[in-house]
Amino acid sequence: MEYLDFELPIKELEDQLDKCEIIGQESDVDVTNTCKQIEKKLQETKKNIYKNLTAWQRVQLSRHPNRPYTLDYINAICGDTFLELFGDRGFKDDKAMIGGLGKIDGQSFMIIGQQKGYNTKTRQYRNFGMANPEGYRKALRLMKMAEKFGVPVITFIDTPGAYPGLEAEERGQGEAIARNILEMCRLKVPIICVIVGEGASGGALGIGVGDRVLMMENTWYSVISPESCSSILWKSWEYKEQAAEALKLTSADMKKQKLVDDIIPEPLGGAHYDRETTFITVQQYITKFYKELKDLSTTELVEQRMDKYSKMGEYKE
User: Fold this and answer.
1) Are strands 153-159 and 191-200 parallel, antiparallel or unpaired?
2) pLDDT tens figures, 219-239
3) Packing angle between helix 32-50 and helix 8-26, nearest 10 degrees?
4) pTM to 2 decimal places
5) CA 162, CA 183: separation in Å to the nearest integer?
6) 274: burial class by Cβ within 10 Å (0-12, 13-18, 19+)?
């Protein structure tokens, strides 16, 4: 397990607990009470840390290297029913954007999401979860296929942003994202979007328009990352914590502003501490919201979706 800077008190206590257990196994000394005291202190420390997280600490948790990624959710929830589909039929297959058909509780879904890598080699292969225009065009192709056959759509969002390279702009990055937003607004099947990690800028919005948008508890969703915001406003990354607070990018802030529909709770310590519980919880939320949407007519579905997004940003003086 890798630890973030604010998790170091937890690491110290876990190390103490491991040493205490080893002493008990290798000697005749009874360390049961000592271990229990350390365990109790460990639980209290975890609760104090994770129930008082700052916006920046939640950003750090969303990027935790042990955190489950899109394919982890797909494999856990769909099992061997997932069939990956490839290519945008125009340029090439984008490895940062994955998609395909899978079943959840017997219901077929078109599942699309950004995929990050687990190590240096796979991170390069997946382009760090930053999709090119062909990735968004592949996503749109799969969504239109789902619409044709009446299959609901699920998107898993986890990206530091769309790829900003010159070649991406030359191939129409902005147009590809804008096209996806337009088409998702009027897609005639239910769309459920789940932010499982980072939800940055247009890269997230390109697959983020849905009837229900859900955020995992320790994720963020914003037009810009705290580091980039800090570098623009203060010409330095040193103010990233202040920027994170000002951006109101946490799940609680987004729910309060009515920009997302619900928050999916995570195990104490984050999704990576108890992956199985996390996967079960996400599946339950997807099933719950699909049941709310499945009986709506296509007209009702599109009207409610358009109405939902039209209301965003409204305020009264």
Assistant:
1) parallel
2) 999 999 999 999 999 999 999
3) 170
4) 0.93
5) 18
6) middle
